[in-house]
Amino acid sequence: MKKKEILVLLFILLIAFLLRLYKINRPIADWHSWRQADTAAVSRNFIKDGYTPLVPKYDDMSMQTNNKDNPQRFRFVEFPIYNSFIYFVWLFTGINTTAARLVTVFITIASTAVLYFIVRNFSGIKTAAVSAFLFSEHFT
What we know:
The chain is mainly α. The chain is about 65% helix and about 0% strand.
């Protein structure tokens, strides 16, 4: 990789990172609040009840999702990979919304870099830079 190419990629990643820090410490109360609350509950229950990725639990016992009683609070929607990342971060930081959101930020930054290298391999440096920039700024 040329020095100019590295600088362009680092600039894109830095801008994407800085934009994602805006209001990162706000409580879970935005448009995606229910999904964020459920995700946080699964990670929090990993801390509280022990790490059980094959049997994730959240804080809802209602019959809302499938019209069946759920007294065990099971949450079977997708395999909790993301929740596991947050769990391992929370082992060091304690239960912290900002730390959980930083997991998302770093996953997005890594995805942007991977996209850049894939597109560069098939279409060249300029197309890769535009693709990475548009991807990183679209999901801000």
